[in-house]
Amino acid sequence: MREKIDESKRLVRYLQRLISIALKEPERNRLPYPTFAAFFEITIRLREIGYYVYRMVDFLNGVRKREELNKICDICRNALNTSDLATLVKLREELNSYEESILPSLNAYEAHMAFAMRRILFNLVRIAELMIVADETQRVTCVPVAKEEEF
């Protein structure tokens, strides 16, 4: 089990390095600025998701087998299987209210785990919104304004 945990942490660090390279060299992407701005924020959100996954691995040792965390995992799993923004927002709201209701019964590791999953779901919602923005910017074309007649 410990080898799997260490391997997952190595994978997250590797992905974070790739994301950092993508952020540092925007000229290679050759994207229009609005699309690049969406891409930039998406990479930041992915980096934050990687951070929380990385931290959750450290919390596993202190987590007791709990039904409350299983429900949170189910909500997150459902969020990963959908691309509909309205569904993601609904799942995020469900997770927020559920986490608030169970927080007093959790130990510190479990509370950190629940918080990390909530932040991951929040970032998934933001990424879905940004993908919609990036898609719209690809469709919009700028048309030069005709010169006004001089009076």
Share of residues in helices: over 70%
* SSE topology string: HHHHH
Structural class by helix and strand composition: mainly alpha
Q: What kind of sheet is the major sheet?
A: none
End-to-end distance: 80 Å
Coarse shape = flat
The helix count comes to 5
What number is the mean pLDDT?
79
The tally of strands reads 0
Strand content: under 5%
Low-confidence stretches: none
Rounded to an integer in angstroms, the radius of gyration calculated over CA atoms is 20 Å
Overview of the molecule:
The structure is a single chain. With 151 residues, the protein is an all-alpha fold. Helix content is 75%, strand content 0%. It contains five helices and no strands. It has helices at 2-24, 33-59, 67-80, 85-102, 108-139. Helix 4 runs antiparallel to helix 5. The chain is flat. The mean pLDDT is 79.
Short description:
The chain is an all-alpha fold and 151 residues long.
How would you summarize the topology of this molecule?
Elements: H1 2-24, H2 33-59, H3 67-80, H4 85-102, H5 108-139
Helix pairs in contact: 1-2, 2-5, 3-4, 3-5, 4-5
Spell out the key features of this protein.
151 residues, single chain, mainly alpha, flat, 75% helix
